Amino acid sequence: MDLLLGDVETTALIPVAIKASETLRKNARVKDDVAVEMIKTLQIDTKPFDKFMSHEGVIARTVMIDRIVKDFVEKNPDAVIVNMGAGFDNRFSRVDNGSIVWFDLDLADSIALRKKVFAERSRVFMISGNITENSWCATVKSKIENKKVLFLAEGLFMYLTMEEISKVLAVLKANFSNGTLLAEMNNPLMVKNQKLHDTVKNTNAVFKSGTWSAKEIADLCDGFSVVDERSINEVMSKCSFRGWLFATLLPKMNDRLATFVW
């Protein structure tokens, strides 16, 4: 199977490699059998993509996002969830309650490969589109009716400029009268020192933006407000001594998760 992916899309291999490695551990914190099979099938060299700090960060954010999504689904059992920049993420299998409708959205090359990796599943739709444009929205809107909708932006905004993020928010507001957005954010120091990142430096991808506060994102589009913001350190610091040490010495350096509504 040929991996015809762009620079940013290639970063989707980082969480795949990490989740596959974690799944095979004795006391795995995250289980993703699709990631394991994908690594085996594609014979991917995981060494450039599975380094300690990235491993702990990806697992921590996965645990946190899973919890947030499960909570949203518990409160809204017939919710529609749109996984923007889905890559090879398999979150649906961990949070499905038997009723939600799920969209995995990404650029055409990623979706083409994703369709080779993932079998068709009921209530799951894979759609290609640019998140800064309106073209994909009609497909999602056709499934919403009066249901609550949650948009996920995991490992995405740091590869967009602030102008591009502003366009994403504008697309969401213009096409959906209300909604919830859960987004991962990094900070300006990570952008400045990205050559030191233990895994992204092994790709050709570039961090294009960083913020110190979720409010900087909300202020990009009228009507957006911040409901919650928390550091991935919350989980990462509890998982290992090195994770605790990183969180203690560099508390603001790790990524954060923020929930927005409009």
Summarize the structure.
With 262 residues, the chain is an alpha/beta fold. It has twelve helices and seven strands.
Task: Describe the protein.
This protein has 262 residues and is of the alpha/beta class. The chain has a single domain (7-261), classed as 3-Layer(aba) Sandwich (Rossmann fold), CATH 3.40.50. The chain contains twelve helices and seven strands. It has a seven-stranded mixed sheet, with helices on both faces.
How many β strands by DSSP? 7
Choose one word for the global shape: globular
Rg result: 17 Å
Classify the fold: give the CATH topology.
Rossmann fold
Number of domains: 1
Give the SSE string: HHHHEHEHEHEHEHHEHHE
CATH class: Alpha Beta
Number of helices: 12
Kindly report the name of the CATH homologous superfamily. Answer: Vaccinia Virus protein VP39
Report the mean per-residue pLDDT as an integer: 86
Strand order of the largest sheet: 3-2-1-4-5-7-6
Beta-strand content bin: 15-25%
Q: What's the story with the biggest beta sheet?
A: 7 strands, mixed
User: Helix proportion of residues, in percent?
Assistant: 40-55%
Cα-to-Cα separation, first versus last residue: 41 Å
Low-confidence spans: none
Q: What CATH architecture do you see?
A: 3-Layer(aba) Sandwich
Query: Could you say which structural class the secondary elements and strand pairing correspond to?
Result: alpha/beta
